[in-house]
Amino acid sequence: MYYLDPKIEHLHRVYDQNERKSYLRLDLNENPGGLSQELITKVLSDVTPQMVAQYPETLEFTTKLADFLGTDIAHICLVNGSSEGIRYIIQAFTAPNGRIVGVVPSYFMFQVYSEMYGREFVKVSYNEDLSMNVDNIIKEITEDTQLLILLNPNNPIGNVYSDEEFELIIKEANKRQVTVLIDEAYYYFYPKTFAHYALNNEHVFVTRTFSKLWSMAGCRLGYIIGWPAGIKMVQKLCTPHNTNAFAMKFASEIIEHPEILQNLIDKFNEGRKYLIDMMDKDGYEYKGEAGNFIFIKPTTNADEIVARMKLEKRILIKSYSNVGSLGTCIRVSIGERKFMEQFWSAFIELDK
């Protein structure tokens, strides 16, 4: 008898199949400039027919990554983008109808995966001023909660958790025997990390991606940090050869040359400073403490700005409604200064 899982049938997904490569892409938190052509040429020059033909081998890169992180391979699981790791953690560490707690708005796949597997996703909302009261998170960590998911910095709000706040959260999660997942997709845009919790405690995971600052969204590579027994459980869910050989080669080159990473950080910081200086100069309200994205409240209609930026300026951005007291805003991915100058020039022209 034919069968379709009703959870999948009724799952709401949004797919954007638009051609984006000819636009200035400031809508999905990618690096609009990417890695240097020199680096790409160097890495690709070492690609052989054998490498393309064989299944990817992960041990060499996993060892290199572990050394880079100051740990060992028992604490790391490579995945095809951190979103895959998030999915596996939800699968392995929650039960059907299990209770998962997360803040909203945040990365939409937290809720999608929860619904996909028939879990209950409990939402903790932001305050009107877009601050997050950690007491509201702690209150939802109940005896029947199985997983707490936090994104730090959180997309799209850009808030971060202090050491003191996170210690309170971890203490309550330990008390209630709740697994904690911290998604650090935007690490490096904000230097604080909670990876040491995942390396030194059971039932704490950190997921990271190479898609954001590392500028490899097209390659699909991420990893999970956790305690060895937990990592083994996640690895059981991984599909065979799920890690891209080209992605590992690019990431390996960056690890071997830390000046590349520092250059990416410096360019981002310069672009962010320029954009904030311009918003302050022109009197715009904005929100975004950390991460490579920021909310801006336009003086005109945000949705119209998004449409006109795409049509007239070939720049992709997003609009968000109900952004606390700011109302409807545009959200812009931040990149190096030349792209922020291009965006700001176009935005100022249209927002009048």
Automatic annotation (TrEMBL):
Its cofactor is pyridoxal 5'-phosphate. InterPro entries: Aminotransferase_I/II_large, PyrdxlP-dep_Trfase, PyrdxlP-dep_Trfase_major, PyrdxlP-dep_Trfase_small. It comes from the Bacteria. Transmembrane segments: none annotated. It holds the Pfam family Aminotran_1_2. The keyword Transferase applies. This is Histidinol-phosphate aminotransferase family protein. The lineage of its organism: Bacteria, Pseudomonadati, Bacteroidota, Bacteroidia, Bacteroidales.
